[in-house]
Amino acid sequence: MSKKEKDSTKTPVEVGSHRLEVIETPGEEDETCKTFVFHNEDHTLGNSLRYIIMKNPDVKFCGYSVPHPSELKINFRVQTYGKPAVDILKKGLKDLNGACEHVLRTFENSVSEFKNRNTSSEMDTS
């Protein structure tokens, strides 16, 4: 274990059935820079969330990495111009959830319309 790993502490937070850790670096009191570890996640969440968070004008930097391909976790870093990084992450997760809900509703409506159209056209040809 490296000195940096020994010096940092991890604060686990339960989020649904997943685990989220906030990596606390001793001596770094700055709430505008945080690294989060999302367990059981990969590029799907990492890239989508990074994209949503980077659209926020309060964000200076946002990036993620997958430490190793065999590990199902991502390290996610957020740096802001003044707002707490935790608040930015929460907003990003809410915004991403809203976008996913919109896509799901649009898809379900389109499938329903398609089925209705095809059902009525099958009746017309009988």
TrEMBL record:
Any one GO MF annotation of this record: DNA binding
Major localization listed first in the record, in broad terms: nucleus
Domain DNA-directed RNA polymerase RBP11-like dimerisation: 34-105
InterPro entries: RBP11-like (IPR036603), RBP11-like_dimer (IPR009025), RNA_pol_Rpb11_13-16kDa_CS (IPR008193), RNAP_AC19 (IPR033898), Rpo11-like (IPR022905)
PROSITE patterns in the cross-refs: RNA_POL_L_13KD
UniProt keyword annotations, A-Z: DNA-directed RNA polymerase, Nucleus, Transcription
Gene Ontology CC entries for this record: RNA polymerase I complex; RNA polymerase III complex
Places the protein is found: Nucleus
Source domain of life: Eukaryota
Family: Belongs to the archaeal Rpo11/eukaryotic RPB11/RPC19 RNA polymerase subunit family.
Cited PANTHER family: DNA-DIRECTED RNA POLYMERASE I,II,III (PTHR13946), DNA-DIRECTED RNA POLYMERASES I AND III SUBUNIT RPAC2 (PTHR13946:SF28)
Protein known as: DNA-directed RNA polymerases I and III subunit RPAC2
Organism: Mytilus galloprovincialis (Mediterranean mussel)
